[in-house]
Write a structure and sequence with these properties.
Layout: H1 2-5, H2 10-13, H3 18-22, E1 30-33, E2 35-42, E3 45-52, E4 61-65, E5 73-83, E6 95-101, E7 108-113, H4 123-126, E8 130-135, H5 140-146, E9 152-153, E10 163-170, E11 173-178, E12 186-188, E13 199-204, E14 208-219
Antiparallel strand pairs: 1-4, 2-3, 3-14, 4-13, 5-10, 5-14, 6-7, 6-13, 7-8, 8-9, 10-11, 11-12
Amino acid sequence: MKKMMAFWAAAAVLWLAGDSIAQGQTLDKLKLQNVRAERAVYRGKQAIHLTEAPGGGQGEGLAMVDGPAIEDGAIEADLAGAPAAGAMEGARGFIGFAFRVQPGAGKFELFYLRPTNGRADDQLRRNHSTQYVSFPDWPWERTRRETPGLYESYTDLESGAWTKVRITVSGAKARLYVNGAGQPCLIVNDLKIPPAKGAVGLWIGPGTDGYFANLRVEPQR
């Protein structure tokens, strides 16, 4: 029973798992903002492929997941990010998950990865492999300037490789786990937006070629 409760209604969550994608139950369940989405097979997994929408646009690159709003719980999925062809020099393959997304995507919390930083020769870049931000008031530039090192950390990443990510959220606290590790690589004890129910979104940053598969959302009961 607990495992069944871990999902929204099966059709609302499992549509990002491989079997559901094969049945064509995916793209119509995403609400796109500044991105385009297509079904793809990437490194042996059936996935959602996200890239920047032609012409760009204002705001964040999000694909909103269809389903009930959640406040606390866990998000788990496989993702793979790499700089897109022709991307700017500073592209890192930015990819992650937005949570507690408010209507209109005007406010949300976000954990994301910078995959090309994970194995860089520059130690400072390695230290910036993972990131927490809170949109719109706490972008990465502000967190790094005002609280250096507090909202980002190192974890081993490989550009373009499948990476298992798990995010747990409870009240004002959130934790990011990568590749099945028993300990989080990034802990946030003071989420910037007061706890509230919101949607989950697949997120990519500028110049990213991103893939998502096997999404599970586990609301806290």
